[in-house]
Amino acid sequence: xxxxxxxxxxxxxxxxxxxxxxxxxxxxxxxxxxxxxxxxxxxxxxxxxxxxxxxxxxxxxxxxxxxxxxxxxxxxxxxxxxxxxxxxxxxxxxxxxxxxxxxxxxxxxxxxxxxxxxxxxxxxxxxxxxxxxxxxxxxxxxxxxxxxxxxxxxxxxxxxxxxxxxxxxxxxxxxxxxxxxxxxxxxxxxxxxxxxxxxxxxxxxxxxxxxxxxxxxxxxxxxxxxxxxxxxxxxxxxxxxxxxxxxxxxxxxxxxxxxxxxxxxxxxxxxxxxxxxxxxxxxxxxxxxxxxxxxxxxxxxxxxxxxxxxxxxxxxxxxxxxxxxxxxxxxxxxxxxxxxxxxxxxxxxxxxxxxxxxxxxxxxxxxxxxxxxxxx
Length: 376
What we know:
By secondary structure, this protein is α/β, with parallel strands linked by helices. The chain has 2 domains: 253 residues, Rossmann fold (3-Layer(aba) Sandwich), CATH 3.40.50; 75 residues, formyl-coa transferase, domain 3 (2-Layer Sandwich), CATH 3.30.1540.10. The protein contains 16 helices and 13 strands. Strands 5-2-1-6-7-8 form a 6-stranded parallel β-sheet.
C-alpha cells in the first residue's frame, strides 16, 4: 500500500491497514516530511534530533521513503511504486493529484487494479470543495461542536481529532470494500470520503432528530438527551457515570438512590426525561454521600451500568487495557523502546501486531529503491 497522505486522516487509515498486515510505504517530502513531525509539544529528544509524539500516534507499521513527487526524474520510481501497490491513499485538496500527473486517468493507465482512496476536507465537488479542512474546522462546520459542551457554557470540540479519525475509519471501510469488489471485477476504482461526510455519519440520532422531527439539537453536556438517568453525577470524592438504559435497570437502580421505582413521575423513560431535574435533585444527596468506589461496587452487584471518569494515565494503567493488548511495545530507531496505543481489533485465527515502529524521515528510502529498482 502506498500512503501519499499527511497529517492524520490519511495516515491513520494507512496505519489501520498496516496493523492488518499490509506492507505500507509512506511517501514523505525530503527534508521536511509529514507536517506532524513538527507538531508538539511534547517532543522527545534523541541523539539525532527530536521526535513528535503526534507523528508516532498515526504511523506505525509503515516504511518511510523520502521522495519529491514533483521531481520529473523521480517519475519512473513513482510509477514503479504505483505498479507495486494494491492501494493508494491521498488527502490532497481536489486538483492536486491531477497537477502531479497522478489523476484518475493516469493511475488507471499505470495500474488498472489500483484501489485509490481520496480523503478531502469538504468533498470532491460543491461550493466548499476547495477549502482546506483541518479537524477543528470540520468539527465546527460539521455540527459536532454545536452538540458538545454544556447548555450554559461554550460549545466545545472533542478532545481528540474526531473528524480526521472518522474520515479515516470510513475511508478504510471503503478501501476494504473496493478490494472485495476487485476480486470479482479484476479492476480497481476510486473511493472518496471527506471530513465533512464523516461528521454527518457521526450525527446518528442527532441528525434524525432534526431531519425527521425538526428539532435543532442543543449542547447536551454530560447528560443523554433521550435517556434518563444517563450521564455524569457527583459522588463524594469524584464524578461517576451512570447509564440507566431501560426500565428493568431503573427498577434495580431506584432503590439504591432512595427513589421509589413506581413514582409516577419516573416509571418510564419518557416520564423520567420529562421530570429530569426533579429526579436528579432526589438522586444528588444520596450519590454524594458515598465514594465512587462504593457506588461502582454497589451498582455492579445490582446490575446497573456505571463507570469511573478516568484520566489517560489511569486508563493505560488498568489491567483490562493491558490484558486486551491495547498497548504495544516497539523498538524505535532513535527513541529505543516505546509504548504505543495498540489496534482495537482482534481476530480468532489471524494476528494483528506491531511489526514496524513509526519510521524516521526517509528511513527506508534505500531499502525500497533496492527492492523495486535494484539500485540505491
